[in-house]
Design goal:
- The chain has 223 residues and is mainly alpha-helical.
- It is built from eight helices and two strands.
């Protein structure tokens, strides 16, 4: 993986400590997932998407070794969520990609897999982007093309696939920022597009960031 901040290294470690059968996300996948959550035309609350980080769903209680492990993981995930939101707001979003050091190759496929997972939460909302301006349409179309390439389901010519594969690490951050700018413009224009909320550090007795109304220790932080 590329050089990443200490907080992401800690997050990577916490994700790796989840049970082997939890199917939790890797950091690059999580980064793409959070980007998709943040630039989605509709607001998606953490209560809906947080369980997907550790391989569950909205109906599945998270399985942690203890409450401290749960608190630390959720806190680190929300910290990265906030950092990503700030980067998007300031126009300096930089995706976290896996890197094959042997071939000096940037592996963007995990990132796009996470982004696709976020899109699947609100497929109808993303359809609205295709009715937006040309830049937003092209950005979303480009990301969908990368999803197809990652799944080996692309209808593009082999040369086009190769060119997109090589350019993807540079195209992805630009496309994500275009989609975020479109989302913000819709909000400013009075359209029903909610701004992404920020979440601070989660304490055991604080309200759970998932929006359930329960204390964190009795919700996502439940042992």
């Amino acid at each position: 993986m590329q050089s990443i901040p200490r907080r992401l290294k800690l997050l990577e470690k916490k994700l790796a400590s989840l049970p082997a059968d939890s199917d939790g996300m890797l950091v690059s996948e999580l980064d793409g997932f959070l980007a998709g959550i943040l630039v989605c035309p509709d607001l998606i609350m953490p209560g809906e998407w947080l369980p997907l980080v550790w391989g569950g769903d909205e109906e599945t209680a998270p399985v942690f070794e203890n409450a401290r492990q749960a608190e630390q993981l959720v806190g680190l995930v929300m910290e990265h969520y906030n950092a990503t939101a700030n980067d998007l707001q300031s126009g300096c979003y930089a995706p976290v990609f896996e890197v094959d050091a042997r071939h000096d190759e940037t592996l963007w496929e995990l990132w796009i897999e996470g982004f696709e997972t976020a899109m699947q939460l609100r497929p109808d909302s993303w359809a609205a982007v295709l009715k937006g301006n040309e830049k937003a349409r092209m950005a979303l179309t480009g990301l969908v093309m990368l999803i197809d390439i990652a799944h080996a389901e692309s209808d593009l010519a082999e040369q086009e696939v190769q060119e997109l594969t090589e350019k993807a690490p540079d195209l992805i951050p630009a496309w994500v920022e275009i989609l975020n700018a479109w989302r913000v413009s819709q909000h400013l224009a009075g359209q029903p597009v909610a701004p992404a909320p920020a979440f601070g550090k989660v304490g055991r007795n604080d309200p759970c960031p998932c929006g359930s109304g329960k204390k964190y220790k009795k919700c996502c932080g439940l042992n």
